[in-house]
Amino acid sequence: MMSNTSALDNIGACVFDAYGTLFDVTSAAARCSDVLGDKASPLADIWRTKQLQYTWLRSLMGEWADFWQVTGDGLDHALSALDIDDAALRARLMDLYMTLDAYPEVISTLRILKSGNYKTAILSNGSQEMISAASRSASLTGLLDALISVDDVKIYKPHPSVYQMAVDRLGMAADKICFMSSNGWDVAGAANFGFKVVWVNRFGQKPERIPGKYLVEISTLNELPPLLGL
Predict the structure, then answer these.
(1) Nearest alpha carbon to residue 214 among 226, 198, 194
(2) Residue 66 and residue 214: Cα distance in Å, rounded?
(3) What's the pLDDT tens digit per position in 13-29?
(4) Which domain holds residue 78?
(5) pTM over 0.90
(6) Angle (nearest 5°) at CA 178 between 10 and 141
């Protein structure tokens, strides 16, 4: 585990990835376990994998589609891979993706950060509608100063123009922004851009072998406020 908490001094904003960091991307499939049974976990895994792959592939191809379409395309692949043909289930899963469960420590962490006068924001691949709906559903809206979506630049993380949006929106230099993600590739991209990055390694992953070094690794967001002296 890398640890350099002194490097987190002089931070003015805490910016969070949404999916997998604040919101549990497996919760939609889990809520459909009554129908999916033992296919719930494999479906969630394939869905997420394809969703991410399609963001990267579309970015490289120059074929933009928003995250709602990409999420639907990933789900369609997952359903096909598991030989599931159920239009009602597909609609239910997509609806549930708009109101994913937040991880249990998210609200308390954001409250502590706000009490410490930090700006807070989401910077996400999600469409504006998706991250707004998820934030409302999880009662996060009043705890966030900005909801920043790749819709504005029409390319996905880890392209530098995505991270630049947080700098522009918050009016703050990259090295004054602490960025949190559970996704190793996002951690690397954000660090390579110039953010001070904390890896919320919820799933015990190994670091990616690409440019960009995070400063601190934690397992849940409960560990964030003490790193900032809160």
Answers:
(1) 198
(2) 28
(3) 999 999 999 999 999 99
(4) 27-97
(5) yes
(6) 115
Whether 188 and 115 share a structural domain: yes
In angstroms, rounded to a whole number, what is the distance separating the alpha carbons of residues 163 and 103?
23
Between CA 64 and CA 189 the distance in angstroms is: 20
Q: Is the dihedral of CA 158, 164, 169, 170 positive or negative?
A: positive
Task: Supply 57's token pair.
Answer: 């592939």
Q: What is the pLDDT of residue 7?
A: 76
Q: Are residues 71 and 117 in the same domain?
A: no
Distance, in Å, from the CA atom of 133 to the CA atom of 229, rounded to the nearest integer, reads: 31
Q: Please write the tens of the pLDDT for every residue from 190-227.
A: 999 999 999 999 999 999 999 999 999 999 999 999 99
Q: Are residues 69 and 10 in the same domain?
A: no
Q: Identify whether 38 is a catalytic site residue.
A: no
Antiparallel, parallel or unpaired: β 177-181 and 196-200: parallel
Domain end, chosen from 44, 65, 97, is at 97
* Domains: count for the chain: 2
Which of 50, 65, 97 terminates a domain? The answer is 97
Given 17, 24, 101, 186, the catalytic residue:
17
pLDDT digits (tens, 9 = 90+) for 145-188: 999 999 999 999 999 999 999 999 999 999 999 999 999 999 99
